[in-house]
Amino acid sequence: MSALPFLPFALPEIGEEEIQEVATCLRSGWLTTGPKTRQFEQDFEAVLNAMNPDLPPVQAIAVNSATAGLHLALEALGIGPGDEVIVPTHTFTATAEVVRYMGADVVLVDVLPGSLNIDLQAARKAVTARTKAIMPVHYAGLAVDMPALLAFAQEFNLRVVEDAAHAFPTLHNGVAVGKFNSDAAVFSFYANKTMTTGEGGMVVSRHPELIARAKTMRLHGINRDVFDRFTAKTPSWYYEVVAPGFKYNLTDIASAIGIHQLKKSSQFQRRREAIANRYSEALADLPLVLPEHAGPNGLHAWHLYVVRLADHTPKTRDDVVEALYAQGIGCSVHYIPLHLQPYWRDRYALKASDFPVSQKAYERMLSIPLYSKMTDADVDRVIAAMHAVFAHA
Ligand SMILES: *Cc1c(COP(=O)(O)O)cnc(C)c1O
């Protein structure tokens, strides 16, 4: 029907700088974690620390996925069997699975109808004597109300690990996600995120002990500080294993990409925001619930642009997805809530009726294309396609 090429739901934006830096890395002979990764970590720290110089500085360590980073953060906090961790149901399974890696239990809670971020009233009802931590997700790139979340965590003495996979760069009340007084925030550089290294992630924390433990566990439990202390006296082949660690380090090939993606991240955010603003204006007259924008002194990373069908529309989500595909436009759904996934549903005997906000959102939502490489013509095409879907109601 449509002569236009298929418009995917997401695409990375990779320039000549990234390609050249990868080529330099390959020619250097140093492929695994080394100087490029150290530079990427330092650059990432510098960006966050420059954003809020008044707040305590953070350290950053690169890992081969955000999932790995979330696991390292929980490990460093000593989360284990018998502990419970509160997680919003409206997220990707990675947020919750790392809790099970540690042998702790996941307690899923519902989200707020506007932002689809964690509902602290639902979280309050979920707290027990075993609750040890809470993992807020900055859904779609819009920050959780972190002052409220941190006050809640303090009230119940909970550790806080932020799933910031969608949230670079994101601000709440002028504070960058990564700089809040949580235990750690973990960013993702998966191929479709707001910046990418193909696969990769970054653990950020203001707590040097957490960073030191995560660094050791990132690479087989080898303690580099012990190593460094003795390098002057010991031969270069010597190392000490202090724990059964993981293999979660990021390669220099990936970091070569990240160094340049990071430099472009503000430019990427501005383009994503411009597209989101255009959507919010042009789709306002359709029977849709459009996504929340950031409040004053906020910044939305706009990883996703999620629309929900209004209550009165006769269309279903599947009708809309199908009609968009017929017009050559890709879309997706974020997320099939965890309470519907067989593992989580069966393990914790979960009922959809316990998560009414997430359940309703899921049934009526779709994510339309949003990425920095989209042209204005691509954006207009999506808008026209959305109007066409509802014109034939
Ligand atoms: C992408 C994503 C992750 C996992 O990131 P990886 O880097 O692929 O491990 C975790 N949580 C959320 C909400 C995500 O979207």
Count the domains.
2
Q: Pairing-aware structural class of the strands and helices?
A: alpha/beta
CATH topology of the largest domain: Aspartate Aminotransferase, domain 2
Poorly predicted runs of 5 or more residues? none
Mean pLDDT: 96
Strand content: 5-15%
Count, helices? 14
Q: What's the shape?
A: globular
Question: Largest sheet at a glance?
Answer: 7 strands, mixed
CATH architecture of the largest domain: 3-Layer(aba) Sandwich
C-alpha Rg (nearest Å) = 22 Å
Offer a few descriptive terms:
393 residues, alpha/beta, Aspartate Aminotransferase, domain 2, Aspartate Aminotransferase, domain 1, 2 domains, seven-stranded mixed beta sheet, three-stranded antiparallel beta sheet, 14 helices, 12 strands, 40% helix, globular, binds pyridoxal-5'-phosphate, transferase, PyrdxlP-dep_Trfase_small, DegT/DnrJ/EryC1/StrS aminotransferase family protein, PyrdxlP-dep_Trfase
Description of the molecule:
It is a single chain. The protein is an alpha/beta fold. It folds into 2 domains: 16-263, 3-Layer(aba) Sandwich (Aspartate Aminotransferase, domain 2); 265-389, Aspartate Aminotransferase, domain 1, CATH 3.90.1150.10. 40% of the residues lie in helices and 12% in strands. It contains 14 helices and 12 strands. It has helices spanning 16-28, 35-51, 66-76, 93-101, 120-126, 146-155, 208-218, 224-230, 252-263, 265-282, 317-326, 342-347, 356-364, 376-391, and strands at 59-63, 84-88, 105-109, 131-134, 159-163, 171-172, 175-176, 184-188, 201-205, 288-289, 305-309, 365-368. The protein has a 7-stranded mixed β-sheet, sandwiched between helices. Strands 10-11-12 form a 3-stranded antiparallel β-sheet. Strands 6-7 form a two-stranded antiparallel ribbon. β4 (131-134), α6 and β5 form a beta-alpha-beta unit. Bound molecules: pyridoxal-5'-phosphate. Pyridoxal-5'-phosphate (PLP) binds next to α3 and α4.
